[in-house]
Design brief:
Distance between the termini: 54 Å
Number of strands: 6
CATH class: Alpha Beta
Radius of gyration: 17 Å
CATH topology: Double Stranded RNA Binding Domain
Shape: globular
Number of helices: 3
Number of domains: 1
Bound molecules: zinc ion
Helix content: 10-25%
Structural class: alpha+beta
Strand order of the largest sheet: 1-2-3
């Protein structure tokens, strides 16, 4: 992948990392058309999971394809903190019927109930905004209102 600028490589690596962390079995980026300008080559990306295949098509380049695929994977996904993954700080979330990595689905009602966790790409990795879970079976603390 050395022909791509560093920023593009980060986007692609972040997507590959995300696919792997979500239990994906394969990740592929490619294009359909030779002998055309790069942005018209019909770039696509797809990730294969046990129960689902997630893909994007008609992207302008490999980084665009990787970014679109990462956002497709994250959209409607459930974070480790139990909340819905959000990709924009303003909290706008597209509630789509998205297959989970394990093939199950999460209903819109369940997603709204859970709340949101903002995810963003930091270099070559997508990161949630919630803290790393400290232990495996730590009891969850009830939220208290202080006003
Ligand atoms: Zn989270």
């Amino acid at each position: 992948m050395n022909e791509f600028p560093a920023e593009q490589q980060h986007v692609i690596l972040a997507c590959a990392d995300l696919v792997g962390r979500a239990g994906g079995r394969s990740f592929q980026i490619g294009y359909l058309h030779d002998d055309v300008p790069v942005d018209q080559a019909g770039w696509y990306a797809h990730a294969q999971y046990r129960g689902a295949r997630i893909q994007v098509e008609d992207q302008r380049g490999p980084a665009e394809a990787a970014d679109a695929l990462a956002r497709r994977i994250l959209t409607g996904a459930r974070c480790r903190c139990g909340r819905l993954v959000s990709l924009s700080p303003d909290g706008a979330v597209a509630y789509e019927d998205t297959p989970m990595a394990d093939g199950s689905r999460w209903t819109v009602a369940q997603a709204r109930e859970a709340g949101q966790c903002l995810w963003r790409r930091l270099g070559a990795r997508w990161e949630p905004s919630c803290p790393e879970p400290p232990g495996r079976s730590r009891p969850t603390r009830r939220e208290r209102r202080r006003r």
